[in-house]
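Section 3.1 - Work completed
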Amino acid sequence: MFFLQILLTSLVTGTEVLLLAAGLYVIYAIARFFHIGLGAMMIAGGYGFYVFNEAHLPFWMAFLGGLFVGALLGMLSFYLLEPFIKKNQQLLALLTSTAFGIVIESSLAIKFGSEGKFLVNAVLPTFDFFGLRITQIGLWTLITGIIVAILAWIFIYLLPYGRVLRAISQHRQCASLIGIKEKKVQLLIFMAVGIIAALIGILTGMNDAVTPVAGLDPIAMAFMALLIGGVSDFRGTVLASYLIVLIPELIVAGTYGDLSFNASWKMVFMFLIALVALSLRPQGIFQTTQRKS
């Protein structure tokens, strides 16, 4: 039962990491750079909900307000990064994305201070399933992850817009030649990813307090999941998102004679897992090396 509880908890955290990694994956597919600023955008969405909620707006309006903050930051980040994307200057795009995130975090710290802000000022309802406990927000997170995954699969593989996305990902120049408006598609993707990031920030903030730097660990885990899983095979990213959460949780929860680890070791173990995985499978979990003729 103890293992099952850790597994359930890891599924919730892993779903948050997966949604953020999915944003990194999609943006890399269409722009060929890692949008590290998503971590700060995620927390900004949580603060957006906090501001509207403190203004005593209805819950649904505060929720939409937080998502609007994510969409707005997604749009701003695109126009900031678009010149580098257009010129295939991936390193400059990465540095600018990182700086964009730092500016967001610093602005939040100046405005709200470094202390945590609670998005829900009440005891969270907890559900008990055959001895396994999960908070209401944790259950919402799992359900949201499933819904977003299904919608993403439908969008990418069943709708015409998905074919457009895959065309840009596979060959941007050819996509432009056949009339695909690459810039418009990229803008919409950036805004959609911003909304998803804000959604994660709101759910995370409801389960715990939000701080200006609370997005650093999630974006680091999402980035590691993307690298371990492989930047061109989303199946690997899905698996890696859960493994890099579950394995450190199991290690920290265990006892090894006089040796034990506290929660501060989790990130250490995550980086070690990433190091080992990338050493053994540098091209991703499911990728195979193609033979060169």
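Second construct:
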Amino acid sequence: MIHEFDYMGALRRNWPIVAVALALAFVATIFITARQTPVYEASAQLVATPSPAIADPDDVVRALETLERRTIVATFARMASTEESRNAVAQSLRLDPRRAREFRTAGSVVPNTNIIRIDTRGPDPKLAASIANAAAGRTAREAETLYRVFSLRFLAQATPPRGPVHPDRRRNFLVGAALGLFFGVAAALARERLR
């Protein structure tokens, strides 16, 4: 005669195994999270507009039509992440090249707008904000040099973030708890089957 396996009974009888697995997962998560280097992200925003130096209304309309095509704004956004831009920003902030390499800067266009986000990620929140602002300022100057009919102005300056974007402690603990529960339940059921 085949007996149905009593899963709930097995878990009730072997609950200490589940509890130990959860505790071990919790301790491991704390250890792994503490060893991860915090990464902070700061963002500056620029808005692309026709240059105030344009006097002819027809030229302003043509400039706006060009901005609608998005290729110009995408070009401006790309400028912030070039090697030349990174080196110029590091030099302007008097950063040691090794220290500067700890930070990553990238530009992106906010969907359906002429707004450019300059994001900088790195281990120091204040320095990440300084680099983002310097990169945004340099992008604005370079854009105006290349395309005199457009102007980039600050919409929002980067400020030091309050907390890191990595590691995500909440996510780490949820994953750790899920893994601990999974292995605890699996071990409890395996022990019951071996009895």
